Amino acid sequence: ASDSSGSGADTRREKRNYMHFVLMVKVLGYPPRDFTTTARLYFNRRDRLKDHTDICPITIYDLLMANYTLTDEQCSEISKFLLRSLIYNPEDRMRADQAHHDEWLSGNNTV
Question: How far is residue 107's CA from residue 101's CA, in Å, rounded to a whole number?
Fold first, then answer.
């Protein structure tokens, strides 16, 4: 009898991670090469997702407008905040202390 303990969980985790990457690419675009080379399980040598080479992009703004009852201004402000928080390179991404003082998050806004 073969021991397959954990293999089902590993497969589910890999599928969940892959779908997470699909959503990231859809909203943020493809990551830089240094990111994809460390994630070869999900990205091919041309830095594209395996099995999903024709992803149709959508903006965070459009996702918010389609799925929530928000005004144009609210979607715009939330989108700006999220985009600064979701940059692939951590050194370019908004830090927690910067987010804490962000106008949208600190409550100095109309959203």
Answer: 9
